[in-house]
Each structure stands twice: as C-alpha cells, then as structure tokens.
C-alpha cells in the first residue's frame, strides 16, 4: 500500500539532504560558513533509507543540502539510486538542487550516472548583487557556467530558483524574466520563509506573489500555465509563449493541501514538513538494528502524523529549531 497521510495526501516525493555543509553563506540562510552542525551518513546508509521509501511508493527523489556537490562519491550514489525501480517498475525521477558553483565540471558524469533534472539557486543576474547576497565574491560566473552546462547536457527543464528579499533583489524580477527568455530556463521566484539562521525574517521582507506578477506584467503580459496539483510552483509564461516563470508562494498563497513530499535530513531524520517542530530519527532506528520491515512500519507511522499545513504569519507560530540549510531544500 502506497504512503498516504491522515489527510488523504499520497506521498510520492522524497527530498534527501546528503550534507548540511555549504560553500556559500547567503544572507537569507546562513549566519556564516562554519561547516556541518549535524552529520553526514555514509552513502550506503542513505541508499538503504531511500530504498525503504521507494518500496512505499516514492517516485521522485531530489538530492539537496547544504550543497550536495561537496560530497565525494556523489556520482556513484546517483548511479546506485538510478538502479532502483518504483512500485510501477519505472526508474526514479532523480533530481538535484545545488548552488551551481561546482556544477559545470560534474554535470556530465551526473547525467551519465542517471540524474535527470537540475535546479540551481541563483538570486541575482547581476554579479555585484549576487556577491552581496551570497557573501561569496566571484561566484556568479561559476554558477552561470553550471546552468548553461546543465542545459547543454539535457538536464531539462533546468530550473533557476531565486529567493526574493525586499531591499536586496526585488529589482531583479524583470531581469530574471529576460534571463528565462534568453537562456531557455525556468526561473522560479520563492517567497522568503522564516527558515534562516540570522532570524531576520519579517512579513515586510517578503516579496509576495501578487507583487511579482504585477512587476512581470509591467514587463510583458503573463498568462498562467496548467500545473499538477502537487506542484509547489504556479507556472506562467509571457504573451508570446517565450520563457517560463514559476512562483512558489508558501507565505501569501500556501499550497499545503496538495503537498506530496517528505524530507530526510543529512543525519537521517524524517521531517514531514519544512516547518515541523519534530524530527523523527529513522537512521537511529536503523543503527539500533531495525529490520527493513520495522523501518517500513516506522515510516508509515511518521507520515501518518504529517501536518495539515504550516502556520506562517499566524499568532503563536513557532519557528523550527533547524534552519533551511540543516533541513534540506
């Protein structure tokens, strides 16, 4: 029987963080660049844990971090994952989310190993603004090269994620629209969520979906594209059909009712929502000798507890103890 939570949502998408280390220190995410705060499991252990989920109906696996390209042995891990089959006998839909800094050199071996899609985080199409946001000088050209390499190697659709923060990069909305049209990539704007280490989030800093659409329409008229119910982004193109923009709006337009995903942190904890207040220690049970059958039952019991929704902006909202980099994107 496939994974289903008590709210009737089928769970088909697993995000697996393979490190909470990162070589960037973006202002909306990290206080500094101190390295891992939790731990990284051997790839063989991630493989066993992912296999349990796949046996329960997971069809999509996205590798995240931290920065997943920092892990030695990543290509072999992707090759091992690509050998798995879904309950329907299909290959997994394997994807990765990366800051792109190391991507240009790794994209071909990752594609050859079985990676199907890549999402790259890039929060400005201006080198100076990019450096201000990432707090890493001279990274822009490396990320741009990674995006172009991913497109060249066919990891499509290549998606470029931009977290918008008022006072930092809201002036990049139109520039990213041009970037999507010129580079042939999907640009996705993400509302800033309270998951940063510096505790700077406030509603005022959020650039909402309505504001994004207003600025896009000032550039050129947009029209909405159809999307799957469980997709996080609302999809748009322009009046001439050139370029694609996605808007992920968990703050102003939550999509919790159709959520199909759970997360596995780098230290092997299940998180049923980005804003969960609890970790569920799957790896700990494995290391204490749990059988695959026992782990399967445990996953079912945890997923049954998946929250109906997050509570951002509501009275009494409690921010998770882990920041995004330590949960996995």
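-> sequence recovered:
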């Amino acid at each position: 029987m496939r994974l289903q939570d008590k709210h009737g949502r089928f769970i088909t998408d697993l995000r697996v963080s393979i490190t909470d280390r990162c070589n960037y220190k973006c202002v909306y995410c990290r206080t500094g660049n101190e390295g891992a705060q939790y731990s990284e499991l051997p790839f063989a252990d991630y493989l066993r844990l992912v296999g349990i989920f796949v046996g329960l109906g997971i069809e999509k696996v996205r590798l995240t971090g931290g920065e997943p390209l920092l892990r030695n042995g990543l290509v072999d891990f992707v090759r091992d994952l690509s050998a798995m089959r879904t309950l329907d006998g299909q290959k997994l839909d394997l994807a990765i989310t990366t800051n792109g800094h190391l991507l240009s050199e790794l994209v071909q071996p990752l594609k050859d190993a079985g990676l199907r899609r890549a999402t790259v985080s890039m929060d400005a199409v201006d080198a100076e603004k990019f450096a201000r946001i990432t707090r890493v000088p001279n990274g822009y050209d490396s990320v741009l090269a990674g995006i172009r390499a991913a497109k060249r190697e066919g990891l499509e659709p290549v998606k470029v994620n931009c977290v918008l923060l008022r006072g930092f990069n809201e002036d990049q909305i139109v520039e990213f629209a041009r970037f999507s049209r010129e580079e042939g990539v999907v640009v996705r704007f993400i509302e800033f969520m309270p998951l940063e280490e510096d505790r700077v989030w406030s509603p005022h800093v959020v650039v909402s979906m309505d504001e994004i659409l207003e600025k896009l329409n000032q550039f050129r008229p947009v029209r909405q594209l159809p999307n799957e119910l469980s997709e996080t982004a609302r999809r748009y193109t322009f009046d001439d059909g050139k370029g694609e923009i996605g808007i992920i709006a968990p703050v102003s337009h939550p999509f919790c009712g159709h959520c199909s995903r759970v997360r596995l942190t780098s230290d092997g904890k299940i998180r049923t929502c980005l804003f969960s207040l609890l970790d569920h220690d799957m790896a700990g049970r494995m290391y204490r000798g749990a059988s695959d059958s026992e782990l399967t039952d445990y996953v079912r019991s945890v997923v049954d507890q998946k929250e109906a929704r997050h509570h951002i902006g509501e009275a009494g909202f409690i921010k998770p103890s882990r920041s995004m980099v330590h949960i996995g994107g």
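The CA atoms of residues 230 and 262 lie 12 Å apart.
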